[in-house]
Amino acid sequence: MTIDSMLAQRAGRARLGAQSERVVQLLAQMPQFASYASAREVAERAGVNVSTVVRAAQQLGFEGWTDLRGTLRAEYLGSLVTTGAERPASSDAAARMLRQDAANLAAAASPANVEAVRSVAEAIRSARRTVVVTTGSGTGPGQILCYLASIYGYDVQLAAGPATTQAVSVSQMDERDCLVVLNVWRLTRALRSLTRLGRENGTTVAVLTDLRSSPLSADADHVVLTPIEGIAASPSLTAMSAVVQAILAELESTPTRASLGRVEQAWEELGLMDEQA
User: Fold this and answer.
1) Tens-place pLDDT, residues 118-136
2) Lower Cβ count inside 10 Å, N or C end of the chain?
3) Going by C-beta distance under 8 Å and a sequence separation of 6 or more, which residues neighbour residue 109?
4) Buried b / exposed e across 189-220, counting CB within 10 Å, b at 16+?
5) Half-sphere exposure of residue 18, counting CA atoms within 13 Å on the CB side?
6) Are the CB atoms for 219 and 194 separated by under 8 Å?
7) Could you tell me which residues are beta bridge partners of residue 178?
8) What's this model's pTM, rounded to 2 decimal places?
């Protein structure tokens, strides 16, 4: 039995509230994280308090979080044992990481997600300007989106720096603009507040997050799921970067090709490229 099916089976026999359901969804989506996380870490990721995590575990028929975590760990470790010629068991970190990223990409390519990507691209295309806000490692995919979209001719800027600086950018947005929020791993209070500020200003809000039940969803017009499951403590950004590239692919059009041509011409005129014979 998989972790997904085990949790679904137990949840079907329980009366879970909205917050407990959020905890269960997190456990199903991030089995490796759940197998080793503390109740507090799970609570922070799910956007609930610790007592909700403990109560959810008890509603599922366990004594508490420690008991549930032990079962999740056993199921997760058992799922890593593979047989057959196609995928031999391997302790090679590189191979394991590539397999995990392939699984993340497959999950990100769901029909609902692809439709959400199209909606985000249309929001950026229609906006007067787009501001991207994120924290930590989300800056990488955020910079890719801003840099390439700007080459395509769109006004897309990354609001970098401390939360006070980010708040300046978001506070000046209105219904003509688009706010793109990238949330990787733990959700900060600042990112949640910035998302709410964008909503209050009438801005179209798009969220890229690994949590199906992210607290940011309440203030979002569009939500794209970007799995970040890795093979160690740190998250993988492969799926989020791929989603960014998918958004850019939707933005690519005849006008963007013309903009790209002008940018390349400017590079040539300025002698910025080192031409190799």
Assistant:
1) 999 999 999 999 999 999 9
2) C
3) none
4) eebbebbbbbbebebbbbbbbbbebbbbbebb
5) 4
6) no
7) 130, 204
8) 0.72
